[in-house]
Design goal:
The complex is a heterodimer. In chain A, about 30% of the residues lie in helices and about 25% in strands. By secondary structure, chain A is α+β, with helices and mostly antiparallel strands. In chain A, helix 6 crosses helix 7, helix 10 packs parallel to helix 18 and helix 14 packs parallel to helix 15. The two termini of chain A are about 45 Å apart. By secondary structure, chain B is an alpha+beta fold. In chain B, the strands form five sheets. A five-stranded mixed β-sheet of chain B has the order 2-1-5-3-4. In chain B, strands 10-11-16-12-13 form a five-stranded antiparallel β-sheet. In chain B, strands 6-7-9-8 form a four-stranded mixed β-sheet, with no helix packed on it. The structure holds flavin-adenine dinucleotide and FE2/S2 (inorganic) cluster (2 copies). Flavin-adenine dinucleotide binds next to strand 8, helix 12, helix 13 and strand 16 of chain B. The site of flavin-adenine dinucleotide has 31 residues of chain B, from strand 8, helix 12, helix 13 and strand 16.
Chain lengths: ~775, ~500
Amino acid sequence: MTAPLDPRTAEPQTRFVRKDLPHDSAAKHVAGTATYIDDVVEPVGTLHIAPGWARKSVRGKILRLDLNAVKAYPGVVEVLTAESIRGTNDCSSAFGDDPVLASDEVLFYGQVIFAVVAETRDAARKAAQQAVIEVEPITPIITAEDAVAADITVLPDYQFRRGSPETGMTAAERRLSGVMHIGGQEHFYLEGQIAMAVPQEDGGMFVYSSTQHPTEIQHTVAKVLGVPDALVTAEVRRMGGGFGGKESQANQWASLAALAAQVTCKPCKMRLDRDDDMIMTGKRHDFRVEWEIGHDSAGRIRAVEINFLGRCGYSADLSLGINDRTMFHADSSYFYPDAAIRSRRLKTDTCSNTAFRGFGGPQGMLAAERMIDAIAISLGMDPLEVRKLNFYDGERNLTPYGMPVEEFETLHELIQQLEASSDYWARRDAVRAFNAENAVLKKGLALTPVKFGISFTLKHLNQAGALVHLYTDGSIHLNHGGTEMGQGLYQKVAQVVADEFGVTMDKVRITATNTSKVPNTAPTAASSGTDLNAMAARNAASEIKSRLIAFLCEQHGCGAEAIHFGDNKVLVGDKSFSLGEIAKQAHMARIQMSHAGFYATPGITWDRESATGRPFFYFAYGGACSEVTIDTMTGEMTVDRVDILHDVGHSLNPAIDLGQIEGGFVQGMGWLTTEELVWDEHGRLRTHAPSTYKIPTASDVPEDFRVKLYESRGNPAETIYRSKAVGEPPLMLANSVFCAINDAVASLKPGVVPELNAPATPEAIMSAVHKIKRAPAARHGEPETS
Amino acid sequence: MRDTVRFLKGGEVVELTDVQPTETLLDYLRLRRRETGTKEGCGEGDCGACTVALGRLMDGKVVYQPVNSCIQLLGMIDGAEVVTVEDLRQDERLHPVQQAMVELHGSQCGFCTPGFIMTMFTLYHAEGQEKSRKTVTDWLAGNLCRCTGYRPIVDAALQSCFDAADDAFAWRANETREVLRALMDSRDIYIGNGDSFFASPASIDGLAALYGQHPDATLVAGATDVGLWITKHLSDLPKTIWLGRVNGLDRVEETPTGILIGATATYAASEPAMGRISPDLAELWRRIGSKQVRASGTIGGNIANGSPIGDTPPALIALGAALELQSADDSRTLALEDFFIDYGKQDREPGEFVTGLFVPRPDDNQVFRCYKISKRFDQDISSVMGAFLFTIVDGEIAAARIAYGGMAGTPKRAFAAETGLVGAVLDDPSTWSTGMKALLGDFTPLSDMRASAEYRMETARALLAKALMEASGTDPAQIRVLNTREGSHDRAA
Ligand SMILES: Cc1cc2nc3c(=O)[nH]c(=O)nc-3n(C[C@H](O)[C@H](O)[C@H](O)COP(=O)(O)OP(=O)(O)OC[C@H]3O[C@@H](n4cnc5c(N)ncnc54)[C@H](O)[C@@H]3O)c2cc1C
Ligand code: FES
Ligand code: FES
């Protein structure tokens, strides 16, 4: 599956691919004319839905549900309960454990029990508050520790094992161990969850849904309504952000909108209030990580044992793949000779945690960085030295799950370049000097790598379809199964198609993702949107083009080499035609000018059962160097400078890729610093609004922010124009910020490993500061356990 | 008396007779006008997706300020020009801020973009702004973007917002001014009936009379609290009285001894005067909410809501501010700290309202410091806020006024610490310990989602220690991660 690197000289001629074109909707975004679902003109008589839930309850049997006052509220048309469902009361992706409406038990704080359908959204929301609900409370299981104590999981445990970690650990010169808490993360897509369902003939349903997975919306709605898939069409033109939060978690709202439409025979719209959205939908998994590492006195890792205790919430949702990916990335970029990587998927009475950019990978990588930092601190070495010492290389290049890291040279070269461009060593000295002079403020510096596996680890999802039509005026209709959530997928695919036909971008009409055009698609996730859909679209376009070429060869009695597509023209020998003219001629000659393209990623052989085979097509790499200052009296922190070098292969659109890198980094920085999810002792989420849950603002981004694309020789894997996926990997560049904070805390007592947990809020930083100040000084030359 | 709300939009004067007491501007735009360019991201003033610009006459000029339309009442736009994202394009040509955002890749999912555009529009029209990243991030603090990481947006603002305004709004500024002038009148607005109304009295007497008649009505100043009761608590507020047109209630007057601040003076309007008292107050004001919140939110509202985590009360209490209250037949003045009786309970009678406060200017021998601690620097609510006024005589603390927010059910003075610090020698930190220890007895803070009780207590002590260190000459640059007092070692004589 890997082909020889395509040297820069062999770069194909492109006109739009590789160009910094703006986002396809940029001009509409700034003008306010880009249509999101809430902006779609509502059909006359559209009704509005609000969720009803037990605001005081977390977990327990429903003893009483009195909806009389709700039904009597002015403007209310219908109140839906589990009994209203004609099909199956489940909106899960796979495991059948996500009720659309709770029937006899409340499983978590915020679970929807009924839904009000009313003439206005305001009336629906107010009516929903009128319910009388009594729940027989049982003590909920909230934390990872609670779930471990109760020994309760949503899915079976899983592990990767290589060599004998037990022997390796005993044989190692030094051993370190520790426990780390890694917090979750709210997606905070700016456009909240929303769906609008419009009833069709014969019981059919057209559903507008802000979703990353229209096919799953279609299937789920059909299942809930009790109709065949073919009666349901799901469509999405764009989302106002997704980040994984609309991969499975859009299902419930689309189902409720469709159910309401089925029951009332009216168009129905459900737009969640922001607080409800934050309370009801799942988040990034939080983890308790227990680690032990054996290493030699030079800093080389000998053996690793890690237990990832992931809090999944009340149902399985996508937790299987997510926790697997945590394990796949528990090596970050480091070779573990002997390793046991274990994962437990804990069930808690909280919202069902779900996909979030990185899909479990970031947590795995952060744990690895913590172990490296611990080795470096306890040995008195610079963490960057220890990182490099343990990087995969030509000999030590097998991951704990058995896939070789073939492109280790990219990793080495990239980190080396970043080390130089960030001036790491001079700044290390400056940080040390600053810390020697300052008692209250302390600086920290860290340079961390990213290596992220690209492909869905569920093999069947690695496929895509596209539908391309050429019309007789030469304009092109482009459709594919990928969804647009801001990542620029639509534009990248359009660039590829425009170049394929040799036309300008205005000739390619981008259209909304729709399950009736391209069926049975994968979610737009796992960073794979462009890899998959651009290939499928190119296949469709090139098929149509070959038909035109065959037609022209016959028509003009020439060979294919005499035909050239470019500049909106088709050259046949020395004759020039517009594409429209050719299309017309081809149409008259009864040539089919529509094609459904398809693509399936080659070479993926992962078998989960036996934990063997190759899960990833390739890896994407990156590196970031961050410098921070902390206040050891209050725990306040600023990020002073960040240097990033990131590998996107040969970029399809450098401007869009840069946007993904910067945006991903800042989102990751938020995850690890200001974004804290707090559940109270009863299990109620307290941070359910932007007033209490703090994503980064403009001033949190360092003024000195140097982001560059790595000068790649191209993706060795045969991807579209040798590009690399860019959606998720940059999020993990933010690990450098966390490690830099850790470095600053570590400066307080050399040799002692700080106990910093994520997110590093001012309070978390102070807690680590207090602990390290109280810790006994490290005895030189002896291993220190954190 | 007027029974309409009038405003200018898209070059036309709009006059509405049907204004519900709790109708928001955002719902009016999206649901009634079907102008869907303005987005709802949170419905609580925190994300900025709903930002629109309001142009009002200030000192004879049209000044545009950003506001969160999700928590502005529709009636509050009376007399203003309302500019939404739909109004910016001229003959299909993008406005310079829109153009810059396209060129510099400032949008990804685009949902936050109209809000950013509108805040940038107000910066584009603001005069005398220093062209810097700091200026831009301060203006944009109330606009959240989850996609871009902000860098391209900040660059777009730097590229487009600092040249002299040259757009349709600048070209027709004179005309706009005349229209707005004509819309300003001194008639009371009253829409509705005795059971349900939106009212906007034009005079203090008119307000006193109306509120005396309807003591159950909800007073609305900037609606940065009241707006959330509507959008989040879904409260029915049948009677709303907006204070924004009450003549004279928004004064900010600097006198030789201090500052008189009217109850409806916004944070934005009082910022310069407060900043002249102390750079710490300038920074505190800057960090309250966002541009949008500061353009609407008022000092009167920040005090009257009685919040234990309001940012201005601790600072104002430390400075010794006095509060003025008025009702239909009485007026009185009391020390600000006495207004806060208990959590949710203030010394305010039915029919009584806040008219303003007087903030004494510190003397030359006084050192003032305040610090706000929050998870995020911009637009966050304090977990702890501490304010300190030390009177220094011969290098010793002769008197101290210390107040904290976030440490009790109300903004509260630390009397024990104040007493314990009397006689402390600035140059001898060992003499500070009595006061530092006494602070522990002043408060028993609570744990919540912003911070634990332990963190609050230890941070309160840390802030007191910082204030003492700075008072004794430590350069703030050495002990603050966000140093905004550059070079000011204003150690008291
Ligand atoms: C996004 C956001 C960020 C915020 N950030 C901060 C922050 O950083 N720091 C902070 O301290 N606060 C913050 N707040 C809270 C809010 O801005 C303040 O509490 C504000 O000062 C309230 O003023 P207002 O004029 O908007 O009051 P309103 O919402 O209009 O009224 C608030 C209360 O005061 C009453 N009231 C108003 N004026 C009078 C009067 N003259 N006499 C008697 N009663 C009166 C009202 O009836 C109501 O009970 C924030 C709010 C939002 C939405
Ligand atoms: S919608 Fe978020 S501030 Fe108004
Ligand atoms: S572009 Fe998506 S939130 Fe800003």
